[in-house]
Amino acid sequence: MGPSRRPGPACPPSPPRCRAYARGLNEIKTLGPATGSTRTRDQTEAAIWWDDPRLVEWPIKRRLATTHRLGDLGSARMFAMVDVAAADALISCYKEKKRWRFWRPVTAIPLADTDGNPATVADPDWTPLRITAPSAEYPSGHACFTSATMAGLRKFFGRDDLSISAFSADSGTTRRYDSLSEANTELIEARIWAGVHYRFAAEDGNPLGAAAAREVLGNAFGRRGD
Fold first, then answer.
1. Which of 124, 138, 165, 179 matches a 20 to 30 Å C-alpha distance to 58?
2. Contact call for residues 19 and 26 (beta carbons, < 8 A)
3. Residue 190 lies in a domain
4. How many domains does the chain fold into?
5. Does residue 2 fall inside a structural domain?
6. Residues 123, 69: contact at Cβ < 8 Å?
7. Does residue 25 form part of some domain?
8. Which CATH number fits the domain that encloses residue 47?
9. What is the pLDDT of residue 224?
10. Going by C-beta distance under 8 Å and a sequence separation of 6 or more, which residues neighbour residue 147?
11. SS3 of 25, please?
12. Cα Rg, the chain, nearest whole Å
């Protein structure tokens, strides 16, 4: 059974007429388009790598199980802890998406002349680098998922400074990180570089995923033999 109370996001999304919303929209408008962006080559690679539909979090877990020689029982426990935490985080996340029903950049930027904000300008030809998922904007599901995944790994191994890496067929590259926090921080930026989430959606999804993970891991996974 999941936790009885699921934490909400850090704050509601900024209304379209607010300055914070304009900052978020204008940032992704320049960093996230398919063409003519201000991204670096590495940022583009990271955006594609993290957006691989095969989910790079899976090979990260498999590699950790192998390199740390967890064996069958240890691997099963690690996968269970991480995947239950991630699943619970996504439940919390999608409840918030349904609650807020906030529009995503792929819709908001072409229609910015209808948002009532003088600091935003419509670009009817704007398209994101990566395909936008058919779900509401706020909070970012990938941020919730990855934050919970990293929280589960941190709980299992008892440390943050794990060397992790994975190959993405979409980007054709392998990316490496010296800690779980480093990877999680880049994921937040990568959702902006991909053109699929405003910064506030990714930044608020991160603590939501971590909070859901802490709750389920604290209740469902005690010491072995308990």
1. 138
2. no
3. yes
4. 1
5. no
6. no
7. yes
8. 1.10.606.10
9. 56
10. 89, 184, 205, 206, 207, 208, 209, 210, 213
11. helix
12. 18
Going by C-alpha positions, the residue among 56, 50, 57, 85 that lies closest to residue 156 is 85
**What pTM did the predictor assign?**
0.91
Q: Answer whether 207's CB lies under 8 Å from 10's CB.
A: yes
> Residue 132 has what pLDDT?
98
> Helix, strand, or coil here: 147?
helix
Picking from 52, 97, 107, the residue whose alpha carbon sits closest to that of residue 205 is 97
pLDDT in the model for residue 3: 35
E strand or H helix that includes residue 88: helix 71-100
Helix (H, G, I), strand (E, B) or coil at 174: strand
pLDDT in tens, 201-221: 999 999 999 999 999 999 888
Among candidate residues 25, 26, 28, the one with its CA nearest the CA of residue 43: 28
Q: How confident is the model at residue 18 (pLDDT cuts 50, 70, 90)?
A: confident
**Structure tokens belonging to residue 160:** 């943050």
**Domain membership of residue 188 as a residue range:** 19-220
Interval 21-60: pLDDT, tens: 999 999 999 999 999 999 999 999 999 999 999 999 999 9
Residue 170 β-bridge partners: none
